[in-house]
């Protein structure tokens, strides 16, 4: 079967939608974290995570557009106040979940971009 003519399954559409929402939220959280981080040694790690989440949002947007689906609204700059007070350490507990989502998401994205690894 020609991979170019494959349609997304309902499970893939739902998963991509959820991943879009998760990554758009991660972009907001990581932008905030990057603004507030005091340990400059961690900045490259946060910048990398931010870049990966931004790439995912763009890639998933393109997949939805190519399929003729609506692109989720997701989270945006309007949902984060970079000037607000520093958040507690509990924020860091969410990072392992984000890492898991990103690694699973890469499997779906690689279907649309041969040779791509995430």
Helices, by number, come to 3
Distance between the termini: 25 Å
**Mean pLDDT reading:** 78
Q: What is the global morphology?
A: elongated
Mind telling me the C-alpha Rg?
16 Å
Kindly give the count of domains.
1
Q: What low-confidence regions span 5 or more consecutive residues with pLDDT below 50?
A: 99-118
Structural class: mainly alpha
Helix coverage percent: 55-70%
Name the beta content range: under 5%
Structure description:
With 118 residues, this protein is mostly helical. The protein has one domain (8-112). Helix content is 59%, strand content 0%. It has helices at residues 10-36, 43-67, 95-112. The radius of gyration is 16 Å and the shape is elongated.
Question: Secondary-structure blueprint of this entry?
Answer:
Elements: H1 10-36, H2 43-67, H3 95-112
What attributes does this structure have?
118 residues; mainly alpha; disordered C terminus
Please give a quick description of this structure.
59% of the residues lie in helices and 0% in strands. It is an all-alpha fold and 118 residues long.
């Amino acid at each position: 079967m020609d991979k170019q003519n494959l349609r997304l399954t309902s499970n893939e559409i739902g998963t991509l939608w959820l991943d879009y929402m998760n990554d758009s939220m991660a972009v907001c959280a990581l932008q905030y974290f990057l603004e507030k981080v005091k340990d400059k040694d961690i900045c490259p790690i946060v910048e990398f995570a931010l870049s990966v989440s931004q790439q995912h949002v763009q890639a998933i947007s393109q997949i939805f557009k190519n399929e003729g689906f609506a692109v989720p609204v997701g989270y945006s700059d309007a949902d984060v106040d970079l000037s607000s007070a520093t958040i507690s350490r509990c924020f860091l507990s969410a990072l392992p979940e984000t890492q898991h989502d990103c690694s699973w998401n890469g499997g779906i994205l690689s279907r649309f971009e041969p040779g791509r690894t995430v």
